[in-house]
Amino acid sequence: MIGHNIKLIKGREILDSKGYPTIEVELTTEFGVFTASVPSGTSTGKYEAKELRDGGEKYLGRGVQKAVQNINKVIAPKLIGKNPQEQQEIDNLMIKLDATPDKSNLGANALLGVSVAILKAGAAAESVPLWQWIAKLAGTKPLLPSPCLLYIEGGLHGRGDVDTQEFMVVIEDGSFHEQLRLGTETYHTLRELISKKFGKASTNVGLEGGFTPPVQGTEDVLDLIMEALKKAGIRKAKIILDVAASTFFRDGRYYFEGENLNQYGLSKFYTALCQKYPIIGIEDPFAQDDWAGFEGITQSLGQSINIIGDDVLATNIPRIEEAQKKGACNALILKPNQAGTVTETIRAAKLALDHDWDVFVKHRSGETCDAFISDLAVGLGTGWLMAGAPNRGERVAKYNRVLMIEQELKNI
C-alpha cells in the first residue's frame, strides 16, 4: 500500500546521558513522524557490533557525523518508498549495504537508529502499540517484565573502590507497578541509610543512577542493600550482580578487590556470596574470552542461579550458539545496539528463549529518553527489564513506559 511507504529518513547528532554524541533518526510516513535514538555503552565487549565515531578534536573524537551522513546519503536513498512493515527485509538490506560482519562500515549506531524508527512506523501502519507489533514480528507472547532496579554502581560506572559494576534488586511480590513502587521505596530508604553512614555527599549517583558510596568491597555493598531491604520491610527480594569481569582481567588473572585471582579463586568467591546472600543472577562473572570460567561456574551454580552473558555473548548469534554448545551460560543480556538491527535482536532473543534461557533486556550507560527497550521486553515476553535506577530521566522513562503498557494490556 503506497500510503504506508517511507517518505523521508533523516539522521542527526544529539547528546546521550553521558554528554557524548549519539544518533537520532527521524522517519516520515503518512501515519506521522517517528523518531528513534541510539544508546552507547561504557564497558563495551569486543564482540559487539561497532559504533562509528568521527575521531578528531570535536567532542573528544566521539562525534557521530560520519554515521549521520551514512544515514542521510547511503541508507535513506535505498529505503525511500519501502513499506516499514517489511522489517526483516529492510534490516537485511541495511546489513547488505554495510557489508561487514560487525557493522563497522556504516556503523551499528546508524543501522540501529534507522531500524528502530522503521519498527515504530510499522507499528503505526498496523495500528497497534509497539510492543504488540514486536510480538507479532517475533511470534512471541507479550508479558510484563520484572524491573531489575539498580541500587549501587562500582567498576567503570562508579567512583568508589568496588570492582563489581552493578548491584540490582528484584522485588518478587505483585504486579509490575507494585514491584516498581516497593523497589523505589527501598531505593530511597537506601539513600537515607547511606547518608547517615557516610554523609550527604555520599549519595551521589553513577552513570545509571545507582549510588556510589565509599565502601571497599562487594560484601560491604550487599550488606548495605540487605539492611535497606529490612528497613523498608521488604521480605521477598533477590539480587543480581553485574560483575563485568573483563574490566579487571589482565594476563590471565583477575585483579579483583585487591587480590590476584585465578578462575577457581574467583568462582569460590561467587559461591560464597550465593550462600550468604539471596543472589539469583551473576552477569559476566568471567572475562569475555574465558570460556572455561563460564563453563565451570555454569556447571557449579547454574542449577540455582542465572549465569548471565553480556560481553561474552554480545547479543551475537554465533557467540550465543557457541555458549549453548559449551554449556557456558544459561541466560542472555539483550542489548539491541550490540546486534545493530531489530531483526538480529529478535533472532538472538528467540535463540536464547528456545533453549530455556532467561533473557534480560538491558539499557546502556549512555542512554537517551527513547523507551524502545521497554516495548521490546514486553513484546518478546522475556520477563526481565534492566533499565537502571529509579533515578535520572533516561532511566525512569523506561519504567514509566512499562507502566503505560500495563494499562494498555488491561484495555485490550
Tell me what you see in this structure:
The chain has 412 residues and is an alpha/beta fold. It has 2 domains: 2-127, Enolase-like, domain 1 (2-Layer Sandwich); 138-411, Alpha-Beta Barrel (TIM Barrel). The protein is built from 13 helices and 14 strands. It has helices at residues 65-79, 87-98, 108-126, 130-138, 176-198, 218-231, 263-276, 291-301, 317-326, 336-339, 342-354, 372-380, 393-411, and strands at residues 8-15, 21-29, 32-37, 146-153, 166-171, 237-242, 249-250, 253-256, 259-261, 279-283, 306-309, 331-334, 358-362, 383-388. The strands form 3 sheets. An 8-stranded mixed barrel has the order 4-5-6-10-11-12-13-14, surrounded by 7 helices. A 3-stranded antiparallel β-sheet has the order 1-2-3. The protein has a 3-stranded antiparallel β-sheet with strand order 7-8-9. Helix 12 (372-380) links the parallel strand 13 (358-362) and strand 14. The longest helix is centred in the middle third of the chain and has 23 residues, at 176-198. The relative contact order is 0.14.
